[in-house]
Amino acid sequence: ARRDSGRTHIRDPRLAEARRAKYTLSSIIGASAACVAFKQQARRAARTRAPVLIQGETGTGKELLAQAIHNASLRADKPFVAVNIAAIPETLLESEFFGTAPGAFTGAERKGREGKFKLADGGTLFLDEIGDMSVALQAKLLRVLQEREFEALGSNRLQPVDVRILAATSRELLAEVEAGRFRADLYYRLNVVTLSIPPLRERLVDLPLLCEHMLEVLCHKLGLPSRDIAAEALQRLHKHPWPGNIRELQNVLERALMMSDDEALCLADIDAVLPAAKVAAATAAPASLSLAEAIAEAERTSIRKALAACGGNKARAAAELGISRTSLYEKIALHGMG
User: Fold this and answer.
1) How far apart are CA 76 and CA 283, in angstroms?
2) Which one of 164, 217, 258, 290 has the fewest beta carbons within 10 angstroms of its own beta carbon?
3) How far apart are CA 207 and CA 253, in angstroms?
4) Distance in angstroms (rounded) separating the CA atoms of residues 152 and 98
5) Cα gap 169→54, rounded to integer Å
6) Cα dist from 263 to 88, 217, 238, 268, whole Å
7) Does 118 have pLDDT greater than 70?
8) DSSP state at residue 215
9) Is the pLDDT of residue 102 over 50?
10) What value does the mean pLDDT take over residues 186-215?
């Protein structure tokens, strides 16, 4: 990489491509009033340099929206760098953000390491699940946003940085502020523009379009011939509460496709994989459950209850369940809970 005025310019086209946002506003499928409204708000937000706070339940597509905002902005040709705060151990987050100076500590890379702020310089930094950030790191993030400069770990040299922040959370940040778990000054710094993504249950009119689009994408991904979905199967999807939102819908359709050889997914295909239908069947005939199935269902129920009790905070839910946060993420993926 070559340096110019303290900025790093990436020559490797593969790295540049990896930091390019894939999705645009046209990637957001839906014609409901709720969908049209938040796409219009996102389009307006893209025209500014202000920070954006994206709020929405798990699985609603917060990173997709962040990428779309970046691609509609004047920074579209610059890097888009995403950090899932909930998925990175607290002890590593600071170095992940700010990088490390050469030989900053035992085990550090000899040449040092650039952090996400430096990688996103000139572009957009997306902070997913920002409500999971510790208060100590919140203070350091606030300083970078205010001063537009940072220090790498182990360095005493300030580096200027030009980054637009898009943040997302599945939690109610104002309630976190009132509880003392989130800094009020950072909240107001991030909350210049707020976009709320409606949950799937509030935009069910979009289900046919979403299913059509997802089936096309999934069939291409899985190497299957094009598939349709029967009217009664679509009606069944309308009755589901969709706690996992768009991600859950994609999971259900993909699993149904893998179990069906017909030209169109039928009601039986959907009932075979839809969580609520499986639970109802288990309740009606508990004797038919194998021990492994019973254990898996009990685990799913425990995870749902822990997440609900902790307001969607996966770190606290993991502690409540007595497992690591990494194990919780693995179990959520294993059970298709989004």
Assistant:
1) 51
2) 290
3) 12
4) 5
5) 7
6) 42, 16, 21, 14
7) yes
8) H
9) yes
10) 94
